[in-house]
Amino acid sequence: MNQEIIAEITDQDYKAIAADISESISSHMEESGSRGVIFGMSGGIDSAVLAYVCKSAGVKTLALVMPDTSITPREETHDALQMISLTGLEHKLIDIKPIVSEYTMYVEPDEKARGNLRARVRANLLYYYANIKGYLVLGSSDKSEYQIGYFTKFGDGASDLAPISSLYKLQIREIARHLGVPDRVISKKSSPHLWEDHDAEGEIGMSYEEVDSILYCKNEKKIKVEETAQVLGIDAQKVSSVWKMCADSAHKRTDK
What is the DSSP code string of the chain? Predict the structure, then answer.
């Protein structure tokens, strides 16, 4: 990989970025008349960053920890609860296994569809409690996953505000370090845990270093596929794959 490009991506003022995100959450709450915010706490780095930002913003926050105990690794729930302990946020722990099981009694089996169902069940629970409390739902998608469509439409892609969607995954790792997120959470492999042994980079087909570098060349440097491949020193097929993921997932980034 081109380390100069990675340095361009990661060399940011994370103190200022964290302050801007906190201010954005507070201002959206004021504009909407909301009494607080709510988000799903998964044990992954994106939701951990949200937890720490909400803590620093000093806003009323409810974090829902929603494992499906039939497939969610115990360590993920442990990490989620550790983030809750470290930030002191109010939380609820809800096992969605019975809800998913009830759904699947009435529909034909499909493992991928069931995985996306898990994400949509979680979104329903978030909006249920947001409705009760008058809270805004915060999305945890980062820029990398949002751009390539690596999220479930009307699932983890459903939110009133997506505070970290302007940050690439590599930048999420850096702001996590700035905020004091434990190294264990920062360094572990990313996974939506929609099915057993679900690995994000494995499903995408490349590392986040590659994805972010390609997206950065596409979005910020405004260069095309072949030039991007030359600049980054990677196969043009990988560059084309990311461009195709962006195009194919465009429908996920519109309400129409």
Answer: --HHHHHHHH---HHHHHHHHHHHHHHHHHHHT-SEEEEE--SSHHHHHHHHHHHHHT--EEEEE---TTTS-HHHHHHHHHHHHHHT-EEEE---HHHHHHHHTSS---HHHHHHHHHHHHHHHHHHHHHHHTEEEBP---HHHHHHT-S-TTTTT--SB-TTTTS-HHHHHHHHHHHT--HHHHHSPP---SSTT--HHHHHTS-HHHHHHHHHHHHTS---HHHHHHHHTS-HHHHHHHHHHHHHTGGGG---
Q: What is the pLDDT of residues 165-224, one digit of tens each?
A: 999 999 999 999 999 999 999 999 999 989 998 999 999 999 999 999 999 999 999 999
